[in-house]
Structures are given as C-alpha cells and as structure tokens.
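Work Package 4 report. The design task specified in the project plan requires that, given a folded chain encoded as structure tokens, an amino acid be chosen for each position. We show below one input record used in the internal validation round.
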C-alpha cells in the first residue's frame, strides 16, 4: 500500500506541476497579447502625431518621422510623395500643429501580428509668414484653418516593432 501511495502522490505532483506550467504559459501569453495590443495602438498614435505636426521649417524631419513609423503601402506612399510634400510645404509656408484626441483598437488579426486602430486628431493649419495662403489665390485671407482628422490605420508587427502599414482618412 505504501508503494501505491507513493505512485499516487507522484502522479498528483506531476499533474499539479503540469497544470501550473500550463497556467503560467497561458498567463504569459495573455500578458504578451495585451502588450501587443497596447503597442499597436501606441504605434498608430505616434504616427498620427507625426501627421498632425508638419511644418515648412522642419519638413524634412517631419517626413522622415512619417517614414520611420511606417511600413509597406504607407511607407511607399510617403517615399513617393515626399518631394511633392516638401515642395508644397515650402512654397505655401505651411505650419500645421495638432493634438491627438483618441486612439483605440478595433481588432487584432494575422495571429496577433496585425491590428486595426482608429485614431482621432484635430489640427490648426497656418499658411505663410505674412498671414496669406500661398498658391492659387495669394490674396486669400490667411486665417488659420481648423481640421478634424479621423484615420483607420492598419498596424503591422515587423520584428519587434509595430509600424503603420496603411492609413486612410474616414468620415
């Protein structure tokens, strides 16, 4: 009977150890999932803040920040359009400042390597040092223009970083 008791206790201890390992692994996976969700939202928010802060005096650094926080389709678009963006900002002496209002996770997909995030921000745009809009009608009043931006961003995990792979304005 002593031998049967030892075998029973050994099986019980082994079962408890296996359960503890399984619960620990599940807890660690849940924590990693939560870290990924937070990192995906943070990446979209950082990218949106870069979109909201464009200035003709720092346009090269501003565009570099957009490129650095993006990948795939979004990065390709910034790379292709950066010369036009730079020229427009310099010609019109554009200064845009903004504030991020909210960012929230919609869904995770692709085994936790991709996320959809909605982002809301407001911006104030000014043109030219003389208070006039540049371009089409240089006599147009240069009153600052307020804009509300709403983006749907796809964020992708590349290595250990989350980067915006697609950003589209939504109504």
């Amino acid at each position: 009977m002593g031998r049967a008791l030892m075998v029973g206790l050994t099986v019980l201890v082994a079962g408890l150890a296996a359960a503890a390992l399984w619960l620990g692994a599940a807890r660690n996976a849940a924590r990693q999932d939560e870290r990924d969700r937070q990192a995906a939202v943070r990446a979209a928010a950082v990218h949106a803040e870069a979109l909201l802060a464009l200035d003709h005096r720092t346009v090269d650094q501003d565009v570099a920040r957009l490129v650095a926080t993006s990948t795939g389709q979004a990065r390709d678009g910034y790379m292709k359009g950066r010369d036009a963006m730079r020229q427009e900002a310099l010609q019109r002496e554009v200064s845009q400042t903004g504030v991020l209002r909210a960012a929230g996770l919609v869904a995770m997909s692709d085994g936790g390597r991709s996320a959809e995030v909605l982002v809301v921000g407001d911006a104030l745009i000014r043109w030219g040092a003389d208070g006039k809009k540049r371009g089409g009608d240089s006599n147009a009043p240069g009153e600052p223009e307020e804009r509300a931006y709403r983006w749907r961003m796809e964020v992708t995990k590349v290595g250990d970083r989350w980067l915006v792979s697609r950003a589209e304005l939504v109504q």
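The mean pLDDT is 87. Validation will be extended to a larger panel in the next phase.
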